[in-house]
Amino acid sequence: MVTENDLDKLRTLQDILSQKIRLEHDIQEIPKLLGTQEEMLNRLKKTFIEKNQEYEKVKSAESEFRNMLLEAESMREKSEKNMDVISTQREYEALDKEIRDASEKEQQYRKDLQQKERLLSELDEQIKQHTGLIEQQEKELSERRSGIETEITAKKKQVDDLVKDENKLTKDLDSEVVFKFERIIRNKMGLGIVAIKGNVCMGCHMILPAQFANNVRLGEEFVFCPYCSRILFYEESESEEEFFDTEDAGALSDLDDIEEEELDEDEEEEEIINIDNEE
Ligand SMILES: [Zn+2]
After folding, report:
1. How far is the centre of ligand 1, averaged over its atoms, from the C-alpha of 117 (Å)?
2. Is residue 246 packed enough to be buried (19+ CB in 10 Å), middle (13-18) or exposed (0-12)?
3. Whether pTM exceeds 0.70
4. Helical residues (DSSP H) of the chain, grouped into ranges
5. Within 10 A of 109 (CB to CB), how many other CB atoms are there?
6. Complete DSSP assignment for 72-99
7. Which one of 10, 22, 51, 263 counts the least CB within 10 Å of its CB?
8. Whether pLDDT at 187 is above 90
9. Distance from Cα 266 to the centre of ligand 1, integer Å
10. pLDDT digits over 236-257, tens only?
11. 6 alpha carbon to ligand 1 midpoint, in Å?
12. How close is the Cα of 224 to the center of ligand 1, in Å?
């Protein structure tokens, strides 16, 4: 016999299960919030490594230019000294060309060197910035991680408490009913016990065969809606309007629609009765 007390127990169980499911969902989802931050940290670290590699490359190019500059300088100085010891116009012209070439190279290498030095100081600045950002991000992440651990621990404790309440409630309920009830609440993320008014399930608004309403009213066993699987309890229908008090109520203004609906409903009733006969 299904008593009002049993139905109340199911309603309380429904609250407990909904809370438990929500908490379990949170426990799963919360750590994913760290994903974005972890990704950002990885990106920063990757850029940091790349900048360091680039720095090393520019650094070696810089010292190469520095050597070439020194070479060009000493070449020019040597040629300049030789100017003191030449005697012919031809010697003079050759030497003069050497000096000009060396000076041109010197100027070019000096420019290149300055450009590399600028690049190095920019890279150095960026590397310092990244070091700071990485440290900051790591700190935030570890704070967030421990915050999340605390939050999850608290939620797990809440789940444990709910499970205790759940066990107290379910110990004298039929375990199969409890199993089905929990499954429907999980699937529909909410209501597992709903009223049947007239012949209409208030969970899915389907019209059920009259025998369903009768069985629910008799209360000999738990009755599950054949459409949405929710447990049904009987509630006196105030008027015939309940039949149309669904999302489709707007169709009342259109007579054609009502006829169609009534036809559909007849078909549905037949379907259910057929299913019943097969069983
Ligand atoms: Zn239903």
Report:
1. 76
2. middle
3. no
4. 4-29, 34-82, 89-170, 175-188, 210-218, 255-278
5. 20
6. HHHHHHHHHHHGGG--SHHHHHHHHHHH
7. 263
8. no
9. 17
10. 876 544 444 444 444 443 334 4
11. 20
12. 8
